[in-house]
Amino acid sequence: MSEIIRIDVRPLSVRMPRPWVPEAPDLHLVRVDVEDRDGGTGSGFSWTPTIGARAVAALLEDDIRRFALGRDSDPTVLWPALWAHLHEAGGGGITTIAMAGLDLALWDLRARSRGVGVPDLLGRTQERLPVYGSGVNLHYTEGELAAQVERWVERGIRAVKIKVGRPDLGEDVARVALVREILGADRQLMIDANQRWDVDRATRAMSALAPFDLTWIEEPLRSDDTAGYRELARRITTPIALGENLHTVHRFREALDAGFAAVVQPNVIRVGGITPFLEIAGLAEERGVTLAPHLLPDLSAQLAVTLPRATWVEDVEDAGFDALGILAAPSPVRIEGAWATVSSAPGLGLDLIEPAVA
């Protein structure tokens, strides 16, 4: 590979058609463009839904750029060296989110230099993948929630995920019961508490919610409460899913070794990019644990089609890059009905642009 001679960083923000929380209507990305000494170029991005975009951009513009310039553009060579260099600032979080922007750009460069897309570079194993409808909908009224689930059913979606964690457990029970009634008995239902409970509250909640035949409970506790997850897994029967807020392969290995993670959900950006994502996916495959990438279907589906086993693609309503209007050309990931497919495009095929102002 050739040396990196240029790294450009550009923050982008876009107003979401369906804000995930009312107080944070915008989604934030940081575009990263690279060039190597042979004239090859690549483009990647970091992503922060609500918190930390300026910090991510600053880390990329300062420490990451200074370390990476002049080094080998092979992402598998650069990533571990850069992570070790940045570790004093934190092993994960802002550190790995920022690293992802450069890692994606280098994978994009690598694939483009060989005239292929990243899925073809890695080796496709899947023709299409099942999609589950995912709702960031805790603030929805029951009527709005019902309408969303009905839209998924009309699309032919076979599995959906909704948010739980309202202050009144009775409201959670009523909302889950409503969704189960709409779905019927033959579709899968997952719930996501987004780290809102402690062990005792999670125990009470799952005692009330488990009768609705749940595929998994996602992030019932704070992501770093390893002891709490061990105890909760002993108390409840519903499988536990987690991983969107784990940032390193070491944390995933810890969760798998402890035995409480039935489903792991790495977010490609939060773990630091494609390089560590592939390592985490390999670890999950080795342990025989289900992997279901978190969000960003325009990116995560491109990696999911290269995995040994078919996995879910998470599709949050109106949150894809095409819907957000931030791509210069259509996304290579197409979600139609209950399925996702990935077309061939150079590199990652994701050329982020400043969204048009309405």
Automatic annotation (TrEMBL):
Species of provenance: Microbacterium sp. A8/3-1
Lineage of source species: Bacteria, Bacillati, Actinomycetota, Actinomycetes, Micrococcales
PANTHER family on file: ENOLASE SUPERFAMILY, MANDELATE RACEMASE, MITOCHONDRIAL ENOLASE SUPERFAMILY MEMBER 1
UniProt-recorded Gene Ontology molecular function terms: hydro-lyase activity; magnesium ion binding
Cofactor: Mg(2+)
Name this protein carries in UniProt: Mandelate racemase/muconate lactonizing enzyme family protein
InterPro entries named in the record: Enolase-like_C_sf, Enolase-like_N, Enolase_C-like, Mandel_Rmase/mucon_lact_enz_CS, Mandelate_racemase_C, Mandelate_racemase_N_dom, RHMD-like
Any one GO BP annotation for this protein: carbohydrate catabolic process
Keyword Ribosomal protein applies: no
Domain of life: Bacteria
One protein family per Pfam: MR_MLE_N
Gene3D superfamilies, per database record: Enolase-like C-terminal domain, Enolase-like, N-terminal domain
